[in-house]
Amino acid sequence: MIDSPSIDSAAETTRITSFIKTILKEQCFKGVVIGLSGGIDSAVSLSLLRRSLKPENIFVAHLYYFKSQITFLNSFLRKINIPQENIYDIPIKNAVNQIQKMTGLTKTSKNYKLRLGNIMARVRMVALYDLAKKHDCLVCGTENKSELNLGYFTRFGDEASDFEPIRHLYKTQVYQLAEYLNIPKEIINQIPTAALWENQTDEKDFGFSYKEADKVLDLYLKNNKIFKIFPNSKKIICWIKKNSFKHNLPYQVK
Hey, what's the torsion of the CAs at 218, 35, 187, 117, to 10 degrees? Predict the structure, then answer.
């Protein structure tokens, strides 16, 4: 039996909050902007920010295409004392649709769903960086190690940030940390999704679970051949390899 990679949640919390404080001090910033989707990664990242900063120095943006979840998120935001005036509930559909028109993207276009999803992710990041400029803040990313190694992100979209507090943690470790940080159960129990199209989920896209992926990733990254015992190991490694180019761009003359 191979267990999922685990962490000491208390030690990780101390380590990450220290990292956040150090980054802000070194870069001479007091505030942070973060996108809050309604999922576990952004909730954990926000909770860690709140343990590191005064609430008035944290700006939260809920950037939605389909339907706002701000009502669902308000109890969590109140619980960690984020000021109401620091919370932005921003629809991005009009901006996305304008880019669709500009590029001629329609439902009959090749790779329609993926292209539309990439536009959404990049529009969200444009909004986050504009808010960061407005409030003289850094942008906090919410990517985890599983997404990073599987290449499950949009370049210049959800990948873009000024610092990443949980990128060194596998998805299953983020769940461990969420329990320790007392993230509301209704957020922990949300099915992981980038909300890039109707009924989209991460694991449906993958064809395997984060629980299995994290075990395979951990063994693979440690050059341990035992990962072959997992039924989806080839599929998981394929995700790593087919998206590895994202970690090497942009290419340049040497």
Answer: -70
| Span 9-199 CATH architecture | 3-Layer(aba) Sandwich (3.40)
Return the domain boundaries, the chain.
9-199
Q: What is the pLDDT of residue 86?
A: 98
Buried b (16+ CB within 10 A) or exposed e, 224-251: eeebeebebbeebbebbeeeeeeeeeee
Per-residue pLDDT at 188: 94
CA–CA distance, 200 with 69 (Å, rounded to integer):
16
Q: How far is CA 25 from CA 30, 52, 128, 133, 205, in A?
A: 8, 12, 21, 18, 39
pLDDT, tens only, 37-54: 999 999 999 999 999 999
Q: Which pTM does this prediction carry?
A: 0.93
- pLDDT, one tens digit per residue, over 179-216 is 999 999 999 998 888 878 778 899 998 999 999 999 99
Q: What is the pLDDT of residue 4?
A: 83
Give me the amino acid identity at 185: K
